[in-house]
Write a structure and sequence with these properties.
alpha/beta, binds zinc ion, binds fe (iii) ion, binds adenosine monophosphate
């Protein structure tokens, strides 16, 4: 049996592994396929493709876009993307700027609360274009201002805590369209975590291709529920660990092993789109 992990982060967003290290873990754990899905970034895809090629692992380029529909946050995974697509890169750059400004604002709030964190220390630690709250949490820990990242989230960074700043997000309908325009498949990430069930029909109408049924934080019952939903709406099925390296305790790669048959269905869909576009009826 061949298995895939289709949800992974590197230090090009808030993971701690390099693409090469992540590929090494994938190889050690016997994965046949890996997909990289950094938040609002595709920068790690080229180095990860090269690392996977030398390890004889099949690689799928991807990203995880933070989007919203009716004020509900939804994470959209894009797979098989053209990572040089100009429109995709322009949108990503826009949301990376949003992330960087949000870091400045969160640090300003912390300073206002009497927590002497420096913005530059967060950017230095993040060392990427797509910084997020985990970087703030780690910088606070490193500076000795909290005991650990969990404390940072609990005291300051969780939604509605005093240093939390809302993030401007792209519309989920635009996100689906953007992924398609870059030649990719759009997949709703970890629906069990975001309570996004009510918006599934609207996203399906907008062209959503799949749903992440298997995720580290999905219970067996949740996975079964989303497999039924996938069946009902004719959606492709994906799964992944959402590994962030050591950013959230221990690395999660290996906790989800998606059977290869699902990857074959994803590839068949991408191929049929391509041939459809090349030979319009
Ligand atoms: P951001 O993109 O900046 O909003 O940060 C989102 C990241 O922070 C995701 O990878 C989440 O898993 C992580 N995160 C969100 N809430 C918490 C929490 N309470 N504790 C630890 N990590 C969290
Ligand atoms: Zn993350
Ligand atoms: Fe996510
Ligand atoms: Fe993720």
């Amino acid at each position: 049996m061949k298995f895939a992990d289709l949800h992974l982060h590197t230090h090009f967003s808030d993971g701690t592994f390099s693409p090469e290290e992540l590929t090494g873990h994938g190889l050690r754990l016997g994965f046949a396929v890996l997909a990289l899905t950094d938040h609002d970034s595709v920068e790690g895809c080229a180095p990860m493709a090269a690392a996977c090629a030398s390890s004889e692992i099949e690689f799928i380029s991807g990203t995880e876009l933070t989007a919203e529909y009716n004020d509900i946050e939804v994470h959209l995974l894009g797979y098989f993307l053209d990572i040089y697509n100009e429109r995709l890169l322009a949108e990503i750059a826009k949301f990376q700027a949003v992330r960087q400004n949000r870091i400045r604002e969160m640090v300003a709030r912390l300073n206002h609360l009497g927590v002497p964190l420096e913005t530059e220390s967060v950017f230095a630690l993040a060392n990427c274009k797509s910084p997020g709250r985990p970087h703030v949490a780690r910088a606070l820990t490193k500076a000795g201002l909290v005991k650990n990242p969990d404390e940072a989230f609990e005291r300051f960074l969780k939604k509605n805590r005093p240093a939390w700043v809302p993030k401007a997000k792209m519309s989920a309908l635009e996100g689906v369209e953007l992924i398609h325009a870059a030649g990719g498949l759009s997949v709703m990430a970890h629906p069990g975590l975001n309570r996004t069930d009510e918006i599934i029909p609207a996203l399906v109408d907008a062209g959503l291709d799949g749903i992440e049924c298997f995720h580290t934080k999905h219970s067996t019952a949740m996975s079964e529920r989303y497999l039924e939903i996938a069946d009902r709406f004719h959606l492709l099925v994906t799964g992944g660990s959402d590994c962030h390296g050591f950013s959230k305790g221990k690395p999660l790669i290996g906790t989800v092993r998606l059977p290869y048959e699902h990857v074959e269905k994803l590839k068949a869909m991408v191929e049929s789109r391509k041939s459809g576009a090349a030979n319009p009826p």
